[in-house]
Amino acid sequence: MTPNLGTTQSQVLALVKKYGIVLVLIIMVIGLSIIQPAFRSMANIINILNQTAIFGIMAVGLTFVIISGGIDLSVGSVLALSGVIMGAMAQISTASNPIWETVGPFPFILCLVAALAVGSSCGAVNGSLIAKTRIPPFIATLGMMTVARGLALIVTGGRPVSNLDPGFNTIGSRIGNIPVPVIIYGAVIVVCWILLNNTKFGKSVYALGSNRAAAEISGINVKATLIKVYMLSGFLAALAAIVFSARTLSAHPGAGTGYELTAIAAATIGGTSHSGGIGTMWGAVVGALILAVMRNGLTLLGVHAHWQVIAEGVIIVVAVIIDMRKNAVKK
Amino acid sequence: MSEETCLLRAQNIVKHFPGVVALDDVTFEVRAGEVHALLGENGAGKSTLAKCFIGIHQPTSGTIILDGKPAEFANTRQALDAGVSMIHQELSPVLSRPIMENIWLGREPRNKLGLVDHKKMYDDTKKLLAAIDMHDDPRTLMSELTVAKIQMIEIAKAVSYDSKLIIMDEPTSSLMDREVDQLFRIIRELTERGIGIIYVSHKMAEIFKISDRFTVLRDGKYIGTRETKESQLKDIINMMVGRDLKDMYSKSVHEKGEPLLEVKNLSSDKAFSDVSFTARRGEILGFAGLMGAGRTEVMETIFGYRRKTGGDIYMRGEKVQIKHTRDAIRRGLAMLTEDRRRTGIFPVLSVKNNMIYASLSNYLNKFGFLKFKEIEKDCTRYKEAIDIRTPNLEQQIQFLSGGNQQKVLVAKWLLTDPDVLILDEPTRGIDVGAKAEIYKLMENLAKEGKCILMVSSELPEILGMSDRIVVMHEGHVTGILENTPDMTEEHIMAYATKSVEKTT
User: Fold this and answer.
1) Same CATH fold, B259-496 and B1-83+163-245?
2) Please, which residues have CB within 8 angstroms of residue B76's CB and are 6 or more apart in sequence?
3) A3 in contact with B at a CB cutoff of 8 Å?
4) Which of A324, B2, B239, B442 lies 20 to 30 A from A48 at CA?
5) Which superfamily, per CATH, for B259-496?
């Protein structure tokens, strides 16, 4: 009854199964390069990476959340809330339309720290609710999604926040040929890769997603781990807000609407399983790139934006079908 | 097969899975009105064969004849229609729905308008339940039933299909003795009606009690078929493992050390109260009792998984506070839980990851990163030391046999280097060979000076392995008995049913 592994053929098959999604990305890139020469220019490639950064960073956080067996619907709203608070703090004194007339401007670094603190706090609230009351993550983060959006509107009175500290210009600029947002995205990937694979925290996330009761029996601090997972997701949403403001040189209470779904889609296409316990960091990156390449490619091919949305929906569902088949075959 | 009616005949069944020959030229037959036990170690091919009969698998080659007609089922639906049903080992009830909807799930009786006829469903269910001596209201939610009753509902469901052949895979794994008797009575009623039963079980006592004949498979091959009456236990085990298991229980005599764990007047809400005992180094303390006696709950409380409402725990003479499982592990406790799937394994994670989760903190370098080389080394060492059969350490644990999963979990706890091991039903659902290995391991650990608390519902296991036996009844300790050679199952049962007064 020992499976007859080790033949080259089955090894190749196993590789294809494991990295099939990478193959999809490569085929897309090669295909588009042939059909549309404009696609393969360095400028366009960098543009794609730049486009990926915001939801790519959020998808990294979502990957932790989904591996832990949960979901975080609040990241789009948290992006807006941490963005507008940061923006309000960072408005220059001569701003034409100040949010806070009497206070500020604050030092640039403090504004960034405030954004990250707001994001992490929202995540901490999500995580504590989920860990302590055991309400489903879907509900807890749905609540946060609405509340954070409401707070963002209250803080700004519904107005966009502009005339920000010139520091955002720097974050929006390039080092050499590489946009700073892409460098931030790259750094997030590396740090979170290590966090997920090489630390006790990362291993605990897999354990509690796979079997919460068994994780508890094994002495894993399930509640603390859950809180940390959602804090990380909130933190990364705030980091995405910084990139967002750097790119638009403003903050907006309506920013990030629907981004949570794009981020979830990216993580899902990358093979993260919503039943928990399965998922990889490279999958989150590849998933985000597939979405970005597709959007870019369809635009270059002159496909109308409305059709692009439909294509996106189809690819998400197809990716998950393929992924589930992959797991089914193994059984 | 001349005089008696042959209900099902499977000839030269071969079943290939990619890279594996699961069944290799197996021949098997069931007579009408017969209980035919299907035996073999885990991985021998019993389940695969059963799944060929009910259309989950299709044989690669060979023929299956049911009632004189070829039985080539593409799915379970066709098998059910042809009169073959199966009670699976892992039950999957819809807990939030009533009994009657569970029984008629997917084939609800309809009225003229095509809507579900609840009245008929209720009446039919009532009749079905009465036939197996159950008197619960058909509208009772499944979630309110005990596991044993859920099992009986499964049987009612199988009967409701008007089956000619019912396959039962480990049907007693969650039943108490009284319920087992009830199940056997139902089985006899079924066989009197000419229904054939294929009975898959690891419990030898049951095989002798209920089966007419048995067939043994080993490594996917047909070993033989015998009349149960004319066979002895050692012959069956011999056929199953291909060697003599001279002595399953490798009990030896060795010195007991100082008291390691003392529990005084421990209580937890309604689950149990006033439980006291002392366990010494090198000792195996058995915990016997009926289901619901509170043994598992006591273990969970000691291990910090369940809230303590009274009493004290001492380790090495020192009073300890154990608020959660992390405290317990830090103090040198380990607990192998009773329900492997629910609280033991991480099904989709690798064998290696499953092994290290209780001792992760021991593998961190000064930066907080995991030391993969050491993990690999220790896992490989245990894989070899206790012979865990897996293609490699990266394999998802869900694809291992029950016995090997159990060994991985044992390795997980040994990696924490515990002083006190709590083993709750350590051999449930694993085959004879793996059982003997687990017993030997327990004995070696005791010899090394570790202390083992073993909860078991199998009295031969309690008698075979324990130095002393703590017997519980309805949340109380009714006796702590020295396991002297003249100790008997009857004696333990007297305490477990509290037909003797507590002796202090």
Assistant:
1) yes
2) B54, B55, B56, B86
3) yes
4) A324
5) P-loop containing nucleotide triphosphate hydrolases (3.40.50.300)
**Assigned superfamily of B1-83+163-245:** P-loop containing nucleotide triphosphate hydrolases (3.40.50.300)
Instruction: Find residue B310's DSSP bridge partners.
Output: B267
pTM, full prediction: 0.78
Question: Which residue type, as a one-letter code, is found at position B212?
Answer: D
Tokens matching residue A44: 């366009």
- Cα separation of the two ends of chain A: 15
Three-class SS state of B259: strand
| Token pair of B138 as six digits | 């058909």
Angle subtended by helix axes A222-248 and A180-198, to nearest 10:
170
Nearest to B346 among A1, A211, A219 (CB): A211
Q: How far is A66 from chain B (nearest CA, A)?
A: 14
Sign of the torsion formed by the C-alpha atoms of B136, B138, B141 and B146: positive
Q: Is residue A310 in a domain?
A: no
**Domain assignment of residue A330, yes or no:** no
Å between B387 CA and nearest CA of chain A = 14
Cα–Cα distance for residue pair B449/B204, rounded to 1 Å: 32
- pLDDT tens series, chain A, 331 aa: 444 444 677 777 777 777 788 888 999 999 999 998 989 899 999 999 999 999 999 999 999 999 999 999 999 999 999 999 999 999 988 878 888 877 878 999 999 999 999 999 999 999 999 999 999 999 999 999 999 999 999 999 999 999 999 999 999 999 988 999 999 999 999 999 999 999 999 999 999 999 999 999 999 999 999 999 999 999 999 999 999 999 999 999 999 999 999 999 999 999 898 889 999 999 999 999 999 999 999 999 999 989 988 988 888 788 778 777 665 544 3
The answer to whether B334 and B326 have CB atoms below 8 angstroms apart is no
Asked whether the beta carbons of B462 and B286 are under 8 A apart, the reply is: yes
Please state, in angstroms and rounded to a whole number, the distance separating the CA atoms of residues A133 and A17. Answer: 39
What are the start-end ranges of the E strands in A36-101? none
Q: From residue A50, give the alpha-carbon distance in Å to each of A117, A247, A292.
A: 25, 10, 9
Nearest to A4 among B19, B335, B343 (CB): B19
β-pair partners for B29: B9
Q: State the ipTM, two decimals.
A: 0.84
Chain A nearest-CA residue for B327: A219
Spatial distance between the Cα atoms of B14 and B215, rounded to a whole number of angstroms: 16
Report which secondary-structure segment, H or E, holds A65: helix A42-67
The total of other beta-carbon atoms located within 10 Å of residue B192's CB is 9
The shares of helix, strand and coil residues in chain A, as percent rounded to the nearest 5, are 75, 5, 25
Q: From CA B48, how far away is CA B28, in angstroms rounded? A: 13
Neighbours of B75 (CB within 10 A): 11
Q: Which residues of B281-300 are buried (b: 16+ CB within 10 A; e: fewer)?
A: bbbbbbbbbbbbbbbbbbbb
A199 min Cα distance to partner chain B (Å): 5
The answer to whether the CB atoms of B329 and A219 lie below 8 A apart is yes
Determine the Cα–Cα distance for residues A207 and A203; give it in Å rounded to an integer. Answer: 6
Tokens of A79: 């992006």
> How many Å apart are CA A304 and CA A215, to the nearest integer?
48
Q: In this structure, are residues A122 and A78 in contact, taking their beta carbons and an 8 Å threshold?
A: yes
| Largest pairwise CA distance in chain A | 77
Residue A277 has which token pair? Answer: 């316990």
- B343, B347, B396 ranked by CB distance to A217: nearest: B343
Q: Position of tokens 């990889």?
A: A280
Segments making up each domain of chain B, as ranges: 1-83+163-245, 93-161, 259-496
**CA angle, corner A258, sides to A256 and A262, nearest 5?**
100
Residue B486 has what DSSP assignment?
T
The Cα–Cα gap between B125 and B160 comes to 9
Cβ-based contacts under 8 A for chains A and B: 97
